[in-house]
Amino acid sequence: MDNAAGEDYGRCQVRLVLPYPPSANAYWKPSRGRGLVPSGEALAYKATVARLVAATGAQPLAGPVRLSLAAYRPRRVGDLDNTLKVLGDALNGLAWLDDEQVVAIYAERADDAKAPRVEIVATAARHATPEEAAAHRQARAERAAKARATRNRNRAAKAKGKASRKSLANLATPAVRRGRAGGAVG
Length: 186
Known about the structure:
This protein has 186 residues and is α+β, with helices and mostly antiparallel strands.
């Protein structure tokens, strides 16, 4: 598989062959008060991807990333866009530090009922240092903790009945105000 534009974008690559991901419709489930959260099937897929990436010894890429992939789906249903979303979520922090690094995507799909899979080549100028990867994980954990604290504070204020809906909106994070708390698909 060639890289996205046939150019030499960088010398560092992460090459993976992963199982075909679950449907995007089954990936997220509603959770009381938390918007959408990953389903059990999604968590199992993420764990499988993490094991496979760790087995290859691949380090996350740093800087702008170009992604080439071929998705061999098990049957002639589903669209490539949803497959990309699920793969991006599963590979975030593993093949690259953050999905906002992905600046170009070349994707094609085919059918292979006997061996459904996704072949991925992610290319960047360099791999992240262990310190960069650790700092990114720490920052992501801090953002998640802050979001949880805000949700808990809002729930407590609402439970006491002392806060009006408007004051709760002022306390909430922008994602909560938009009704997209808890990792909803954006």
